[in-house]
Every structure is written in C-alpha cells, then in structure tokens.
Specification:
By secondary structure, the protein is an alpha/beta fold. Helix content is 44%, strand content 12%. The protein has helices spanning 2-9, 23-28, 52-55, 57-70, 74-83, 95-103, 140-164, 170-181, 185-188, 243-258, 275-287, 320-323, 336-345, 359-368, 381-393, 395-413, 416-426, and strands at residues 15-18, 32-35, 88-91, 108-112, 189-190, 199-200, 205-207, 223-225, 262-266, 292-296, 312-315, 329-332, 349-351, 372-374. The strands form four sheets. Strands 11-10-9-12-13-14 form a six-stranded parallel beta sheet, with helices on both faces. The protein has a four-stranded parallel beta sheet with strand order 3-4-7-8, sandwiched between helices. A hairpin with an 8-residue loop joins strand 5 and strand 6 (199-200). The longest helix has 25 residues, at 140-164.
Length: 432
C-alpha cells in the first residue's frame, strides 16, 4: 500500500485486489478495491492418499481438479477485465494468480520483502545462517555445497509430495492450473532459486529492500531492489484506530515515570520462543530494573505468565514502527519487516532467529554488515545481557546502522521504486 500511495502521488491510477477483510484499510487510503478470495499460500489442504487410491488415474484426476478449484482464482480474470490495468503487480508467492494474469496477456511484475535474489557463491540459501568469509561454510566451496544440498533436498521434497498426495500436492496443482490457463509452465519457471516451489525466468521482480543490505550476489536485469516500503498507518485504519493511540499513550506514561533505557521485544507471529529461552530473557529483565522492556506478544501469549518482572510492559499488539521511535535497542526474531523498521529508526538489533523461512539468512546479513548482534535461543542470561549491551554500546554497529539508514532514505528520496514501475510501464513490449 505504501508503493501504491507513492505511485498515486505521481499521477497513476491504482486499483487494489485482495481478500474482503482488507477493504476497510484500503478504503481509508482512498483506493478503488475489488474483493477476490483469499489465497492459500502453500496450496489448499489436501489429504494424504495411500494404497490403490493413490495409483488410480481417475481418482488422481478428480483430486487434482478439486485442488485446482480450491486455489479459487476463478474470479480474477473477470475482475481484471473490468479494470483493464496497464500493469499488474502481484505478491511473488501468489503463483496461481501470476499464471492467470500472464496467460490473460496482462503485463506482470512481482514484489516481495524477502531478499530473494539469484544464487551465488557468496549468497547462500536464504534459510541458512551462513556468513560469507566465515569458516569453510562461508567459503565459495562451502556456499556452493550448501546450494547443492538445498537443490537435492528441494527435488526430493517435490517427488515425495507427489507420491504422498497422489498428484494433489501444490506443485502438481499449479502445473494443472497452468495447463488449464495456457501458461507455458516449462518455459517460464525455474527451480534453481531459493523460493519454494519455484520462481520465474522472465517476469520482473521488485525486492522491497536495499541492495546494500544483501550479500554479494549475481545481478539480473529482471530483479530490482527498490528500497523498503515503510509508513505509519493512516488515520482511521484498523491498525491506527484506538489500539495504537492507547498503546502509545500508556507507553509514554510508563516511560516518563520509569526513565532509563527502553528495550523493545518482539518475536513475530509465526513461532514462539522456547520456555527455557524466555526464562533466561526474563532474568535479564530482572537484572536491569532501571530499564523498561516492552514486549509485543504477536497476538498470542508467550507463556510464563507467573512472576514476570515488574519492568516488563506487555502488549498483545503494538504499532511497532511507531514504538521503535522510543527504543534504545530491539530484541527481535530476524523477520524482514522488523529489521528494516529498526534500521530506519536507528535502533540497535539483537536478533534470535528461528530456523524457519528467511530468518537465519536475514541474521547472516545483519552480521555480515555489522548491523547487530546475533544470539541463539540456547543462550544463558549472562550471554543475552552481554549481547544486548554490546548491541547498544558498539560504535561500529551504530555507524553501520546509520549508513544503512542513509541508503534506505536515498532509495525513497530518489523515487527508486516509482521509477522502476514507470520503466516497466513504458517498456515497448511490457515488463514480461
């Protein structure tokens, strides 16, 4: 929505498609909106098939047809026809929508906040915490071996899921959808990049990050770093109304009364830290009564409800980007949104990444560029406190954050994202 707002300010007409639940926030920003069914990332739920049923061709076709229908992309073509867009920007994980738009003849470009560049001998798979130049794992040979292992795992996973679900796996459903839509699956997709199940050879991709934050990797004319998309929720949106004002008011009141440093803690919404780690973290909070720790629980209690430290202020949700204005440091899980918001606010980072998605790779980039300190969920209280104090006191970290923050701001001041989209609009044959 931040990108849409910037494009509108340059005179472009914007139409937003998404699940009906998004309509109120989109309406607050003044964009035209059309509801389409929510998309099941990773594919619709399919039951595991065993025995003769898994080998029966008729049942296989019926199961696959039902799975394709469950992707629920049917309304998309008619909705797009009513708008007649010059360019369709699509989240890079919405594969069925991407194929439909390309098959319908619309110019398409993709976007993501994930650092999904090309494989390289200094750019390991994004789910690994390998730092180039550190040990054998960070050598060119070590990184190459990591990619080889990943490709083998990815290939085996695809074959195993085809067997397990009798042709009802996500990859097979997308291939069936491609055939039905007339999308050239074999000619358009590639399995050699990090993204699961595949990426695209010919479709432009906008990365909502800075090239300077990434590890050294091959360049592609189809992959553009356009800078982080950061903004505060507009007045009247579901995120800004009531909850944000209440949280910020209480935070300001408590901090004025408490004084000292403010440490922000958040671990996202995907996974919860193990109880042992939280026990160690709360011990660090107790040891520093002069500091105020603000915990955003991500919409679910993190446990250990009894005997919590008095200087720990808990919220189910906070307006994170706004709260970070007051923070002296942030203890986070290594999610991309949290990282860019911390850097943009100039907040030192202590990251404890989960071994899921891109978090380990994000942490590797923090370490490579000296933007923060990386911990482990097995760290003891003494190690956590030492790492936190290092993040706040290390001059090199603060200087690195300031430099990266300057890079982020240049992307915006130069209008890099807007210019990239406008170049796609003016391309003679469209962006694809």
């Amino acid at each position: 929505m931040e990108l849409a707002d910037r494009l509108r300010s340059r005179g472009h007409e914007i139409f937003v498609l998404g699940p009906a639940k998004l309509e109120p926030d989109v309406a607050v920003m003044g964009f035209s909106f059309a509801a389409i069914p929510d998309y099941p990332l990773g594919g619709p739920p399919v039951k595991r098939i065993k025995g003769a049923a898994a080998r029966d061709a008729g049942q296989r076709r019926a199961r696959q047809a039902a799975g394709v229908e469950a992707l629920d992309v049917g309304p998309l073509a008619s909705v797009l026809k009513s708008f007649g867009p010059n360019l369709v920007l699509i989240d890079f994980e919405m594969h069925a929508h991407i194929m439909t738009c390309v098959a319908e003849g619309y110019p398409v470009a993709l976007f993501t906040g994930i650092i999904a560049g090309l494989p390289g001998l200094q750019a390991p798979p994004l789910h690994l915490g390998i730092v180039p130049g550190e040990g054998f794992g960070g050598s060119r040979a070590g990184v190459g071996l990591a990619w080889l292992r990943f490709w083998i795992w990815k290939h085996r996973k695809r074959l195993a899921e085809k067997r397990r679900f009798g042709g009802g796996d996500y990859d097979s459903l997308l291939q069936a959808h491609a055939r039905a839509r007339g999308f050239d699956f074999a000619g358009e997709i590639t399995r050699w990049r990090w993204q699961i199940p595949f990426s695209y050879k010919k479709i432009p991709l906008l990365l909502f990050h800075a090239r300077a934050f990434d590890l050294p990797s091959p360049r592609s004319p189809l992959i553009s770093y356009v800078g982080p998309m950061l903004s505060e929720p507009p007045e009247g949106s579901a995120q800004s109304a009531g909850r944000a004002a209440e949280v910020l008011s209480k935070l300001a009141e408590v901090r004025e009364r408490h004084g000292g440093k403010l440490i922000y803690i958040a671990f996202g919404t995907i996974a919860a830290p193990p109880p042992e780690f939280l026990t160690s973290l709360w011990e660090v909070v107790r040891r520093n009564p002069g500091w105020l720790f603000v915990l955003a629980e991500g919409g679910r209690p993190l446990g250990l409800e009894k005997d919590l430290p008095a200087n720990l202020l808990r919220f189910a949700w906070v307006p994170q980007y706004q709260v970070l204005r007051f923070a002296d440091a942030a203890i986070i899980h290594g999610g991309q949104n949290s990282i860019v918001e911390c850097i943009d606010r100039g907040v030192p980072i202590l990251a404890f990444p989960f071994p899921v998605n891109d978090q380990m790779g994000n942490a590797a980039r923090l370490r490579y560029h000296g933007l923060g300190v990386i911990g482990k969920m097995t760290d003891q209280p003494e190690e956590i406190e030492q790492a936190l104090r290092q993040a706040m006191s290390d001059r090199k970290i603060s200087e690195s954050i300031a430099r990266m923050r300057g890079v982020f701001h240049r992307y915006r001041s130069e209008g890099r994202a807007e210019q990239t989209v406008e170049a796609l609009l003016s391309a003679p044959n469209g962006p694809s």
